[in-house]
Amino acid sequence: MTTTLETAHLREIAEDGARQLGPDASAEQLLQWTADVFGTDFVIAANMQDAVLLDVASKAIDRSTVQNEKLKVLFLDTGYHFVETLGTRDAVVDIYDLDLINVEPEQTVAEQDSLLGKNLFASDPAECCRLRKVVPLKASLAPFRAWVTGIRRVEAPTRANAPLISFDEGFGLVKINPLAAWSDERFQDYIDTHGVLVNPLVDDGYPSIGCEPCTAKPVPGQDPRSGRWAGSAKTECGLHAS
Fold first, then answer.
1. Catalytic site residue 237?
2. Which of 33, 57, 165, 232 is 20 to 30 A (C-alpha) from 150?
3. Considering the entire predicted model, what is its pTM?
Protein backbone atom coordinates (compact mmCIF):
# COMPACT_ATOMS: atom_id res chain seq x y z
CA MET A 1 0.00 0.00 0.00
CA THR A 2 1.28 3.46 -0.90
CA THR A 3 2.29 5.47 2.17
CA THR A 4 1.46 9.13 2.68
CA LEU A 5 5.10 10.01 1.99
CA GLU A 6 5.16 7.99 -1.24
CA THR A 7 1.88 9.54 -2.34
CA ALA A 8 3.27 13.04 -1.78
CA HIS A 9 6.39 12.14 -3.76
CA LEU A 10 4.43 10.71 -6.69
CA ARG A 11 2.13 13.72 -6.71
CA GLU A 12 5.20 15.96 -6.87
CA ILE A 13 6.64 13.92 -9.75
CA ALA A 14 3.38 14.31 -11.67
CA GLU A 15 3.27 18.05 -11.07
CA ASP A 16 6.92 18.49 -12.05
CA GLY A 17 6.43 16.39 -15.20
CA ALA A 18 3.37 18.35 -16.28
CA ARG A 19 5.27 21.61 -15.73
CA GLN A 20 8.43 20.39 -17.45
CA LEU A 21 6.77 18.99 -20.57
CA GLY A 22 3.91 21.48 -20.82
CA PRO A 23 0.45 21.14 -22.35
CA ASP A 24 1.73 20.59 -25.89
CA ALA A 25 4.05 17.65 -25.23
CA SER A 26 3.99 14.97 -27.91
CA ALA A 27 3.00 11.38 -27.22
CA GLU A 28 6.60 10.37 -27.86
CA GLN A 29 7.93 12.89 -25.33
CA LEU A 30 5.42 11.75 -22.71
CA LEU A 31 6.29 8.10 -23.18
CA GLN A 32 10.03 8.65 -23.05
CA TRP A 33 9.60 10.85 -19.96
CA THR A 34 7.69 7.99 -18.34
CA ALA A 35 10.51 5.55 -19.06
CA ASP A 36 13.18 8.04 -17.96
CA VAL A 37 11.46 8.72 -14.65
CA PHE A 38 10.03 5.32 -13.77
CA GLY A 39 12.32 2.84 -15.54
CA THR A 40 10.62 -0.55 -15.37
CA ASP A 41 8.18 0.64 -12.71
CA PHE A 42 5.28 1.51 -15.01
CA VAL A 43 2.70 -0.39 -17.03
CA ILE A 44 0.75 0.41 -20.20
CA ALA A 45 -2.97 -0.35 -20.03
CA ALA A 46 -4.62 -1.49 -23.26
CA ASN A 47 -8.23 -2.39 -24.04
CA MET A 48 -7.21 -3.99 -27.35
CA GLN A 49 -9.51 -1.91 -29.49
CA ASP A 50 -6.38 -1.06 -31.44
CA ALA A 51 -2.60 -1.05 -31.02
CA VAL A 52 -1.96 2.67 -31.53
CA LEU A 53 -0.64 3.43 -28.04
CA LEU A 54 1.54 0.32 -28.05
CA ASP A 55 2.88 1.12 -31.52
CA VAL A 56 3.82 4.65 -30.45
CA ALA A 57 5.38 3.36 -27.23
CA SER A 58 7.40 0.67 -28.96
CA LYS A 59 8.90 3.28 -31.29
CA ALA A 60 9.32 6.13 -28.79
CA ILE A 61 10.81 4.45 -25.73
CA ASP A 62 14.56 3.92 -25.64
CA ARG A 63 14.74 0.36 -24.34
CA SER A 64 17.93 1.08 -22.41
CA THR A 65 15.82 3.22 -20.05
CA VAL A 66 13.75 0.13 -19.19
CA GLN A 67 16.83 -2.09 -18.82
CA ASN A 68 16.13 -3.60 -22.25
CA GLU A 69 13.11 -5.40 -20.81
CA LYS A 70 9.87 -5.95 -22.69
CA LEU A 71 7.26 -3.26 -22.24
CA LYS A 72 4.62 -4.34 -19.75
CA VAL A 73 1.04 -4.17 -21.03
CA LEU A 74 -1.96 -4.71 -18.80
CA PHE A 75 -5.23 -6.13 -20.12
CA LEU A 76 -8.39 -6.53 -18.04
CA ASP A 77 -9.76 -9.94 -18.94
CA THR A 78 -13.27 -9.53 -17.54
CA GLY A 79 -14.62 -12.85 -18.78
CA TYR A 80 -17.11 -11.01 -20.98
CA HIS A 81 -14.93 -9.89 -23.89
CA PHE A 82 -15.68 -10.43 -27.56
CA VAL A 83 -13.58 -13.22 -29.05
CA GLU A 84 -12.25 -10.63 -31.50
CA THR A 85 -10.87 -8.58 -28.61
CA LEU A 86 -9.04 -11.57 -27.16
CA GLY A 87 -7.67 -12.37 -30.61
CA THR A 88 -6.46 -8.80 -30.99
CA ARG A 89 -4.78 -9.02 -27.59
CA ASP A 90 -2.86 -12.15 -28.56
CA ALA A 91 -1.82 -10.74 -31.94
CA VAL A 92 -0.67 -7.43 -30.47
CA VAL A 93 1.43 -9.13 -27.79
CA ASP A 94 3.16 -11.21 -30.46
CA ILE A 95 3.71 -8.33 -32.89
CA TYR A 96 5.32 -6.03 -30.33
CA ASP A 97 6.90 -8.73 -28.15
CA LEU A 98 5.23 -7.44 -25.00
CA ASP A 99 5.14 -8.68 -21.42
CA LEU A 100 1.39 -9.29 -21.00
CA ILE A 101 -0.22 -8.88 -17.60
CA ASN A 102 -3.60 -10.54 -18.14
CA VAL A 103 -5.72 -9.41 -15.19
CA GLU A 104 -8.71 -11.52 -14.18
CA PRO A 105 -11.34 -10.81 -11.50
CA GLU A 106 -11.33 -12.82 -8.28
CA GLN A 107 -14.49 -14.63 -9.36
CA THR A 108 -15.25 -16.30 -12.67
CA VAL A 109 -18.47 -15.28 -14.42
CA ALA A 110 -20.12 -18.49 -13.21
CA GLU A 111 -19.04 -17.87 -9.61
CA GLN A 112 -20.31 -14.29 -9.75
CA ASP A 113 -23.63 -15.47 -11.18
CA SER A 114 -23.96 -17.98 -8.37
CA LEU A 115 -23.17 -15.50 -5.62
CA LEU A 116 -24.83 -12.31 -6.89
CA GLY A 117 -27.38 -13.48 -9.41
CA LYS A 118 -27.12 -14.17 -13.10
CA ASN A 119 -26.16 -11.31 -15.43
CA LEU A 120 -25.11 -8.71 -12.87
CA PHE A 121 -24.10 -6.55 -15.83
CA ALA A 122 -27.82 -6.09 -16.55
CA SER A 123 -29.18 -5.67 -13.02
CA ASP A 124 -26.31 -3.58 -11.60
CA PRO A 125 -23.75 -2.63 -14.28
CA ALA A 126 -21.84 -0.33 -11.94
CA GLU A 127 -21.23 -3.15 -9.47
CA CYS A 128 -20.30 -5.53 -12.27
CA CYS A 129 -17.69 -3.05 -13.55
CA ARG A 130 -16.41 -2.50 -10.03
CA LEU A 131 -15.91 -6.21 -9.40
CA ARG A 132 -14.59 -7.18 -12.81
CA LYS A 133 -12.58 -4.07 -13.69
CA VAL A 134 -11.92 -1.55 -10.92
CA VAL A 135 -11.07 -3.93 -8.08
CA PRO A 136 -8.72 -6.18 -10.09
CA LEU A 137 -7.10 -3.18 -11.78
CA LYS A 138 -6.37 -1.53 -8.44
CA ALA A 139 -4.69 -4.70 -7.19
CA SER A 140 -2.68 -5.07 -10.40
CA LEU A 141 -1.50 -1.46 -10.40
CA ALA A 142 -0.34 -1.62 -6.77
CA PRO A 143 3.22 -2.80 -7.60
CA PHE A 144 3.79 0.11 -10.01
CA ARG A 145 4.38 3.82 -9.59
CA ALA A 146 2.82 4.88 -12.91
CA TRP A 147 0.38 3.71 -15.54
CA VAL A 148 -0.05 4.80 -19.14
CA THR A 149 -3.46 4.83 -20.82
CA GLY A 150 -4.75 5.48 -24.32
CA ILE A 151 -7.73 7.68 -23.43
CA ARG A 152 -8.39 10.72 -25.60
CA ARG A 153 -10.33 13.88 -24.81
CA VAL A 154 -12.54 13.62 -27.89
CA GLU A 155 -13.86 10.20 -26.88
CA ALA A 156 -16.45 11.47 -24.40
CA PRO A 157 -17.44 14.57 -22.39
CA THR A 158 -16.21 12.79 -19.26
CA ARG A 159 -12.71 12.75 -20.77
CA ALA A 160 -12.70 16.25 -22.26
CA ASN A 161 -10.29 17.59 -19.64
CA ALA A 162 -8.01 14.58 -19.33
CA PRO A 163 -4.50 15.84 -18.46
CA LEU A 164 -1.36 14.56 -20.09
CA ILE A 165 0.22 13.83 -16.70
CA SER A 166 -1.49 13.73 -13.33
CA PHE A 167 -1.59 11.92 -10.02
CA ASP A 168 -4.39 9.37 -10.11
CA GLU A 169 -6.13 9.79 -6.76
CA GLY A 170 -8.29 6.71 -7.26
CA PHE A 171 -5.43 4.27 -7.85
CA GLY A 172 -2.63 6.10 -6.04
CA LEU A 173 -0.02 6.43 -8.79
CA VAL A 174 1.03 8.72 -11.63
CA LYS A 175 -1.17 8.54 -14.72
CA ILE A 176 0.08 9.44 -18.20
CA ASN A 177 -2.28 9.91 -21.16
CA PRO A 178 0.04 10.35 -24.18
CA LEU A 179 -2.78 10.41 -26.74
CA ALA A 180 -5.11 12.69 -24.78
CA ALA A 181 -4.88 15.59 -27.24
CA TRP A 182 -5.20 13.49 -30.41
CA SER A 183 -8.20 14.14 -32.64
CA ASP A 184 -10.07 11.33 -34.38
CA GLU A 185 -8.49 12.43 -37.66
CA ARG A 186 -4.97 12.29 -36.27
CA PHE A 187 -5.67 8.94 -34.67
CA GLN A 188 -6.96 7.42 -37.91
CA ASP A 189 -4.11 8.94 -39.90
CA TYR A 190 -1.62 7.25 -37.57
CA ILE A 191 -3.36 3.90 -38.09
CA ASP A 192 -3.34 4.31 -41.86
CA THR A 193 0.24 5.59 -42.08
CA HIS A 194 1.77 2.93 -39.85
CA GLY A 195 -0.51 0.02 -40.68
CA VAL A 196 -1.49 -0.42 -37.04
CA LEU A 197 -3.54 -3.45 -36.07
CA VAL A 198 -7.17 -2.63 -35.20
CA ASN A 199 -9.79 -4.85 -33.60
CA PRO A 200 -11.94 -6.15 -36.52
CA LEU A 201 -15.07 -5.10 -34.63
CA VAL A 202 -14.22 -1.46 -35.36
CA ASP A 203 -14.71 -1.99 -39.10
CA ASP A 204 -17.87 -3.92 -38.26
CA GLY A 205 -19.44 -0.80 -36.77
CA TYR A 206 -18.25 -0.80 -33.14
CA PRO A 207 -16.29 2.44 -32.58
CA SER A 208 -16.07 1.84 -28.81
CA ILE A 209 -15.59 -1.71 -27.59
CA GLY A 210 -16.09 -3.04 -24.09
CA CYS A 211 -17.57 -6.22 -22.70
CA GLU A 212 -19.79 -8.04 -25.19
CA PRO A 213 -23.07 -7.91 -23.20
CA CYS A 214 -22.70 -4.15 -22.64
CA THR A 215 -21.54 -3.10 -26.12
CA ALA A 216 -23.85 -2.36 -29.04
CA LYS A 217 -23.41 -0.62 -32.37
CA PRO A 218 -24.30 3.06 -31.92
CA VAL A 219 -27.00 4.61 -34.05
CA PRO A 220 -25.38 6.38 -37.05
CA GLY A 221 -24.57 9.98 -36.17
CA GLN A 222 -24.62 9.44 -32.42
CA ASP A 223 -21.73 9.62 -29.99
CA PRO A 224 -19.32 6.71 -30.62
CA ARG A 225 -19.59 5.66 -26.97
CA SER A 226 -23.39 5.66 -27.02
CA GLY A 227 -23.24 1.94 -27.72
CA ARG A 228 -21.66 1.33 -24.32
CA TRP A 229 -24.24 0.46 -21.65
CA ALA A 230 -26.93 1.51 -24.13
CA GLY A 231 -30.25 2.32 -22.48
CA SER A 232 -28.70 3.30 -19.16
CA ALA A 233 -27.21 6.50 -17.74
CA LYS A 234 -23.84 4.81 -17.30
CA THR A 235 -21.04 6.22 -19.48
CA GLU A 236 -17.83 5.09 -17.76
CA CYS A 237 -16.72 1.89 -16.07
CA GLY A 238 -14.86 3.71 -13.28
CA LEU A 239 -11.28 3.23 -14.44
CA HIS A 240 -10.85 6.83 -15.58
CA ALA A 241 -13.02 8.65 -13.08
CA SER A 242 -10.19 10.61 -11.50
1. yes
2. 232
3. 0.91
